[in-house]
Amino acid sequence: MRTDIDYQRIIEKVRDVGTLFLPDFRKKAIPQTPDSFMADLESIEKRSLNALQDRINPIASGIAWIDDNEFDGESQRTPAPITQYWLCDTMDGAVQYIQHLAGWTINLVLIQQGRPHFAVVYDPLQDELFWALEGQGAYLGQTKLELNRKTDPLHMLAVWEYGHQLKTDAHWQTKSEKAFSALLGAFGVVRNYGPHGLQLAYVGAGRIDLFLQVDLDTHNWLAGLLIAQEAGALIFSSDGKPWTWGTPSLLVGTPPAVNTFLTSTNPQL
């Protein structure tokens, strides 16, 4: 296992890859058929992955790359049987990119011993780069992240997501409806934004109080999850049990926000 990784150089390479997509943003027509939509998604993912590998392999050779494959539920239930590997959601929010919307990011996470160890979430449009190193805190650039200190749920912002690509639970729709209703009853503001990693990084940055998603989506969570956790956020499953890799739900937030949700009319998601 490599222990001599220059994380700051990795961060700059992720930034470089993100900026590659800026000149073409909103230049190509929005696809109008399922085939053209999927072709654009595949093109973006391939271009991003190749660019990351070309830049990172020379400075961190010997580390494997694992396809995040967010459409494969089984691969998301346990870490890969490798001591150290890169896992990247090459463009989180690629749908936003294709649809000419903000909210697309380049996400990269280094898994060591089955745990997220280092993570980067880069938002090229805002030129904001969030990163975290296990046990050493989370940062926006060089500024250490801190959770916000809100205590009144009427002024908290909660975000809700759902596992649109997997739907591994036969009751996913009912659970999603209950999750959304629970948030509406507990918090003053509820939103759905799209890019999972960025929303979790926003929890760490104090911009979002609570993130909730039901159904399995491990690979979409991991980069932002480490950033939120290193900033001090609480990490649970939706029923308040400790979250572990493969848990089919995620609840992340400030202590007051998580407590508000878990002590409200919890739908036992």
Automatic annotation (TrEMBL):
Q: Which SUPFAM superfamilies match?
A: Carbohydrate phosphatase
For Mg(2+), which residues are the binding ones? D89, D92
Protein's GO biological process: inositol metabolic process; signal transduction
Which UniProt keywords are present, listed alphabetically?
Magnesium, Metal-binding
A Pfam family (short name) is: Inositol_P
Output the Gene Ontology terms for molecular function. Answer: inositol monophosphate 1-phosphatase activity; metal ion binding
- Cofactor(s) the record lists: Mg(2+)
Annotated InterPro entries: Inositol_monophosphatase-like
Name of the protein described by the UniProt record: Inositol monophosphatase
Q: From which organism does this entry originate? A: Spirosoma linguale (strain ATCC 33905 / DSM 74 / LMG 10896 / Claus 1)
